[in-house]
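*** Query protein ***
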Amino acid sequence: MHEPAQAPMPTKPPEPGRRPRICIVVAAPLTLKAFMLGHLTALAQSAEVTAVADFTPEDESFPWPAAVARAPVCIVRRIAPLADIAALLALYRLFRRHRFELVHSVTPKAGLLAMLAAWLARVPLRLHSYTGQVWVTRRGAMRWLLRGADRMIARLATHVLADSHSQRAFLIAEGIVTAQKSAVLAQGSICGVDTQRFHPDATARERVRRSHGLAADALVFLYLGRINRDKGIIDLARAFARAGSHHAQAHLLLVGPDEGGLRAEISAAAAGCAARLHFAGLTDRPQDYFAAADVFCLPSYREGFGTTIIEAAAAGVPGIGSSIYGITDAIVANETGLLFEAGNVQQLARCMGTLAGDAALRGRMGEQARRRAERDFSSAVVTAAWVDCYRKLLARAQTV
């Protein structure tokens, strides 16, 4: 980490023998469950850790780390002035009461409220993680407003992290963050990939294919994630219509919630190949679908880091992704997968056709992707980087 451009506010160091107090703030508990449980568990070994989110009664049945305290604060994703003021006050009171040495926020709304509350409460270390910019695909006043919010977060924070090197470069170029205040941990990714969970699995491959009526020798292109326009799903369906017309064994499997109500439009875009288009809906076992795939596709218009690409890679599956920041960190072009210009359906179809027609290339790229995922992006590597970042920041603050 670089020295902050703005010195932290004066504070007393922890009393001798007292462990430092750290607070992690997110909007939805799902962010903690999906990305941060390993980090929380590791941090709790040397610090008093509190997790803040909009916890609900349903979350009580989840196996949260026993050593991590939870504080419920309702942080809504939409702009809601009254609810946002209530959340800001709740965070301010929490920070003042517990006298945290470090507050770390993830996701935009949580970042804006937590960094402002921590600044007001004179928390000495204020850390925010950028995991993608929603304003990249917006226009007009909303783009200006959301972009300004990201800039404000960076000004209020003492340190910021980006979850990919290309995202950090983009944020610096856009004037959102400075090089001095920003950093990327390890090779990127907010959580890395659990290689014990995501790996080649012949049994899961056969089971998933059978459940969707896919033959053992079918060529399966997979998309897994939220189904909306920003993810380039319509582009993917159109490209599949082109590539699939030349490869009769090719199928497209879409896994995830249809947030945009796009199913009918996706089917229409797949045209003559719609009979080989499959919708799986939401799953709690993504590892099984990665094991069942031959090629993973992420034609997104914006990403902070292509986590699903790395999860697919850990299963030995090569990727096709749009050449945008975040995804270019997850795919090494022509080694672990192929890149194309975002929104260019013809290029995407060409990439799909290249991999559909060359099993040896798919195998070689998949193996290289698997080795890279295990070496650079394992969850153990990323968690160790997080713990080391916290340790260095806290040690440095005590010398100020």
